[in-house]
Design brief:
heterodimer; A: alpha/beta; BirA Bifunctional Protein, domain 2; three-stranded antiparallel β-sheet; elongated; B: six-stranded mixed β-sheet; five-stranded mixed β-sheet
């Protein structure tokens, strides 16, 4: 059946486009049950966007949860050494930040598990860029490398508890906060300036990589910097920015992390990265990278259509039913949407009015 | 999306002081000095639009993208942890979050401490850090009244000069955290209006450095 794309909601359009995008590169759909044992989420609480989960007791007494996240389930169901390329489109249940109440959130995403080499990285980045392109024409993908950030923070000799606080400040682009914490942690002024310089680097990859090479001179950085440069060259998009304020939880993420933004939507619509650390928690040795697209955010993005219906047909008591039916069919054949009523409904907005009432 | 820079300013003295900083940064909007009840002022030539909002609401406007940048107290940022960038410490609107109690108060560590406050999250975090069991009493104003009437043992509140405390026979026991005004930015706007926002932040940072010299 053919139908105009206009009848689809923004998020529905995005789903279809994203699906075909992921299929093109050989990703397979992943379908899962709505429930998962609660235990899985308790052990990985900090991986979740919010740690509130809807739970219930199953008939056999097991504590179950309505899944708040998909990645954990995919990782759990992947055998050691298995290579997977999957995408999913699922509803997840979690507390929304604004309202502090549970919400059903539509989420689409993609996971690639196995050996993650430079090509695999660039492919996922390309798909992330193209996913944003499927949503809007005006978008940016901000990429960062947690490995580089962590190496720098560890070189400063700061204690892990301070590293976590510095990372939080980096995520807020909070330079004055970094200064204060570094002073507390006994980080040298030179290193403090280097951390701040890293946060301040924001821009096109080619320019920022040059700056990074000037800041990060030690040998430890060479491999990661070269890798990052190659991956970004392979992904070659003018919509990619390097931004080291993009950070993730270091107990899950390790290498490249990224967030996608669309002009007009106030928060990130796409978020992802390499999560080898999460794999390790499940006893898996292979690497993994993936991202999620938060389709619920697109709801605010859609504009209200000007009309509820193209044509409103008004008929009276004496109007032959056949005439009404024929008029409606005629209009539909022209590609219009039609609503036939005995009287004009209140608040209905229509483009044209056809009156079949005879006086 | 329009290409104006939307600025949420906190109503009151702090807001006026901050507006002056924006003005010196080259984002003036003369209409703002007109004495009227309008809430929105814009200067299309400078690509800027200002609006006055309740100080505690600034972070909400910025987090949800109704404003691109705004000025909010660190107290609000700590209490509500909005998902925004904290670009600058404006080094103004300085005060501190503190624990205050009646002068003759003696803490009994074996009892649950009753704490009255407007800032529930900051208070919880502070006492959790100390490992102290507390009973939080959330109030919306006149916090000083609570210990006087025996509603609570202590209060956690913002202390500026300490005059209100003194007049009510209270004094500061411990400082929780120093507070000052911060320039915050929406995370999405920071990317799409990067040039404008960086220019404002840069210029205001220079002004602050100049003053503190």
């Amino acid at each position: 059946m053919n139908f105009p794309e206009a009848i689809l909601k923004n998020e529905e359009k995005a789903i279809f486009r994203l699906r075909s995008l992921y299929r093109q590169r050989g990703y397979e759909p992943y379908k899962m049950s709505k429930f998962e044992e609660y235990d899985l989420y308790v052990r990985n609480k900090s991986f979740l966007v919010s740690d509130n989960v809807i739970t219930f007791t199953d008939t056999d007494g097991k504590l179950m949860a309505l899944k708040p996240d998909v990645t954990l389930s995919i990782v759990k169901n992947t055998r050691e050494g298995e290579t997977r390329k999957v995408y999913y489109n699922e509803n997840v249940y979690r507390v929304s930040e604004g309202s502090h109440s549970y919400k059903e959130i539509m989420q689409t995403g993609l996971e690639r598990i196995g050996t993650i080499d430079l090509y695999a990285l660039s492919e996922v980045l390309t798909l992330a860029v193209e996913s944003l392109g499927a949503i809007s024409d005006d978008y940016l993908l901000d990429v960062s490398h947690l490995g580089i950030t962590l190496t720098l923070l560890r070189l400063t000799g700061a204690e892990p508890s301070y590293i976590k606080r510095i990372l939080d400040c980096m995520g807020e682009k909070n330079l004055h906060g970094i200064t204060a914490i570094c002073r507390e942690a006994g980080v040298s002024d030179g290193d403090t300036e280097r951390i701040k310089a890293l946060v301040k680097c924001y821009g096109k990859p080619s320019e920022v990589i040059k700056k990074l090479r000037a800041i990060l001179v030690e040998e430890e950085f060479a491999e990661a910097l070269n890798g990052l440069e190659t991956v970004l060259e392979l992904a070659s998009s003018d919509r990619i920015r390097l931004d080291f304020s993009v950070v993730g939880d270091i107990s899950y993420y390790n290498g490249i992390v990224f967030k996608g933004f669309v002009n007009g939507i106030p928060s990130a619509v796409l978020s992802g990265g390499e999560y080898d650390e999460l794999m390790k928690r499940f006893g898996r040795t292979s690497g993994a990278i993936g991202f999620a697209v938060y389709l619920d955010l697109l709801e605010d993005f859609s504009s209200v259509p000007e009309y509820d219906v193209d044509t409103l047909v008004i008929y009276g008591e004496g109007t032959p039913a056949r005439l009404v039916a024929d008029t409606v069919r005629e209009r539909i054949a022209k590609g219009e949407s039609v609503r036939a009523e005995r009287s004009i409904p209140e608040k209905l907005k229509y483009k044209t009015l056809v009156e079949l009432t005879e006086e | 999306m329009d290409n104006m820079l939307n600025v949420a300013l906190p109503k009151g003295r702090l807001g006026e002081k901050v507006y002056a900083m924006f003005e010196r940064a080259g984002f003036e909007c003369p209409a703002i000095h007109e004495n009227n009840r309008k809430l929105i002022f814009e200067n299309p030539e400078k690509q800027v639009r200002y609006f006055w909002v309740k100080p505690s609401d600034v972070a909400i406007y910025v987090e949800r993208g109704a404003a691109d940048v705004g000025v909010a107290g660190k107290d609000i940022l700590l209490e509500y942890s909005p998902d925004v960038y904290e670009l600058l410490d404006l080094d103004t609107g300085k005060c501190r979050m503190a624990v205050a109690a009646p002068r003759d108060f003696r803490d009994n560590p074996q009892r649950t401490l009753r704490v009255a406050t407007k800032f529930v999250n900051i208070t919880k975090r502070y006492y959790a850090g100390l490992g102290r069991d507390i009973d939080i009493i959330k109030l919306n104003g006149s916090i000083e009244l609570a210990p006087i009437l025996g509603l609570s043992d202590v209060i956690v509140d913002i202390v500026e000069t300490g005059t209100t405390l003194r007049e009510n026979n209270l004094e500061v026991f411990e400082e929780v955290v120093p507070i000052s005004a911060r320039l915050i930015s929406n995370k999405s706007s920071f990317r799409f209006k990067n040039e404008l926002i960086e220019r404002v932040a840069q210029s205001i940072a220079e002004q602050i450095a100049e003053v503190s010299k």
